[in-house]
Amino acid sequence: MEYMKRTVTCGDLSVKDEGKTALLNGWVDAKRNHGGVSFINLRDRYGITQIVVDAQSAELSAAAANLHNEYCVAIRGVVRRRPESMINNDITTGEIEVAANEIVILNACETPPFQIEDETSAKEELRLTYRYLDLRSRGMQARIALRSAVTFAVREFLTEQGFLEIETPTFIKSTPEGARDYLVPSRLYAGKFYALPQSPQIYKQLLMVSGFDKYFQIARCYRDEDARGDRQPEFSQIDIEMSFVGRDDVLSLTEAMMGHIFEKTLGIKLPAHFTRLSYDEAMNRFGTDKPDLRFGIELQNFAPFAAASEFAAFKNALNDGEERRAIALEKGITVSGGAVKAIVVSGKADYSRKQIEELEAHCKIYKAKGLAWMKVSGTDAAPVLEGGVSKFFTDQTEKILAALGAKCGDLILIAADSNEKIANTALGAVRSKLGRDNGLCSGEQFEFVWIVDFPLFEFNEDEGRWEAAHHLFSYPQEKYHKTLEHDPGAVKGDLYDLVLNGYELASGSIRIHDPELQKRVFKITGLSDEESEKKFGFLTTAFKYGAPPHGGIAPGLDRLIMLMAHKTSIKEVIAFPKNSFAQSLMDECPGEVDAAQLAELHLKIETGK
User: Fold this and answer.
1) Most CB atoms within 10 A, among 147, 215, 373, 535?
2) Model pTM score
3) Domain 2-107 sits in which CATH superfamily?
4) Which residues of 333-349 are buried (b: 16+ CB within 10 A; e: fewer)?
C-alpha cells in the first residue's frame, strides 16, 4: 500500500492547491448522498477535507457506497474550489473539496459503540472502555494537543530561565506524605518494598544540596487516595525547585511562567502579578483557601447582631466557641472560637423554600448544623426582613442592611458554629454552589490568586496531635522560631498556594535547610528522633553538608490544562485515565497475577472472610 501513502493531511489543502492531485489518508467522519453524488468528510488529526464522488463513475460510486463511518481509507483526487454558496467557514479546508478518482479501504470498522463527534454525550464508562475511539473525537484531540503545547511551553520557559530538567527516581523509600503510598514488592529482598513517589519532594531538595541551583521536571506522581473529578491515582506536576531564593522569587517566577504558557498556547495575556490573600483573609472572606474570584458574594461577620438577638442557636455557637477556645488555651493550644457568618445573594429573594433547603443540605455536608435565612422585601424606602429567622432580627433591620449592604430583593444566608473554621467552610461551600448554580463563574475568565501565610501546623483533635499543614519540610517564618514549640497553632509558614477559578493549581514553600530546625518540626508532629532518623535520616544528614536556603512549587499539569480547556474533570485531558474507582476499563487494570509471579515476590494473597 506504499503508493497510497498520503501526500497531504486533511488540514493542509486550500485554494492555492486548486488543480493539484492530492492523496489523503484518514477516517470517514460523515457521508451523505445527494442525487447520486456522494460527499465524504475525511478526518485526521489535522482537520477535515470534503471528498466528492461524482455520479459519472459507477466504480467510484460503488466504492463510496461501501464506506461507513470510521472506516480507515486512502483517497486520491483533484483539488477544486467549492462554489461560493457551499464554502464552509467552520473548517480550515472549507474553500475546497477533492474530486475523488481512487478510493481504497485500508481497514473497515465495526459499528462503534457510540458516535464519534466533537463532544460526545456517551456515558463515561463507555468512553473509558473504548478510550481509543473516544480519543478520535476532535474535542479530545484538541485537549491532548493543548497538553502537548503547554508542556512544551513549560520546558521552553524554564530552560530559558536557566533551569535543568532532571529526572528523579520512580522507586523510592516509603515516607509519610499525607496519602497512602502505592507499594512495589522487591523480588530480590524478601519482605521489602519500594514506594511510588507521591511527589519528588525529598529528591528535589537533595538536588539543591547538590548545587544544581535550578531544577524542574514534568514529574509523575502517585497517590492511593479516593478519586474525584480533579484527582487521579497517577498524575503529572510541573515540579520546580530553586536555591538562594525567598517566597517572592518563587511567586514571581511562577507568574511569569503562567503568563508565558497562556500567551503561547491560548493567546491570552495574563496580568504580570496575581492577587495575594493571606490564608486567614481567604477563609474569613470566602470560606475557603481555594476562592473563586470570578464572582463576589463575600462572607461577612454577623456575630454582633447574633449576640444582640434572642436567637439561641447563634448565641450558643458563640458561647460554646469561647468555652472551647478557653479549654484549648489551658492546654497551650490555640484554636478559633465560634462564629456567625452571613452572605448576601443579590436579587434572589425569590428563592423557593425547596431551593433554600437544597443549599442547607449542601451546607450540612461541611459539618454545619444548619443554614438560617432571611429575605429583604418591602420597598427601597422601607425595606423589611421576612421569612426564616427574621423575627429575631426585625429590631436590628436598619443596622443589618447597612452593615451587610443588602437591599430589597436580596436573600441573606447565615451559618453559625462553635468552630469558626466550620462556619466559614460551610458557608463558603454554599457561596461556591451559588456561583455555579447562577452562572456567575464565567467559563472564559481566568482569575488567579495567591494564598499565603498558611498555618504551619494543624491540630488533629481526633488524634490529639499536631500535623504539618502542607508537609514536614516547610520553613516556619522566622518570627516564630523562638516560640515554635510553645504555640504551634500560631506559627505561620513560608507556604503558598496558587488558586485558579476555585481550584488549587499549585502548592509550594520555602524549605527548611537547617537540620536542627527540621528536627524540631519533626518532634512537634510527634516524630521521635529514632523515627525521623529512620524515615528521613538521609535528608537531615545531607543538610549537615552546607545545604543552601531553597524553595519551590509544583503546579498540577493535569489540573492546569483542565482549567485552560474549560473542563471540570482531569479525565478530559489525560489520554488514558482511570475511572473513579482507580480502574482502567479498557485494559481491565488492575488485574490478577499468577501464583508463580507472587511466589517470586515472596507474596501470598489472603482473601478476607
Assistant:
1) 215
2) 0.93
3) Nucleic acid-binding proteins (2.40.50.140)
4) bebbbbbbbbbbbeebb
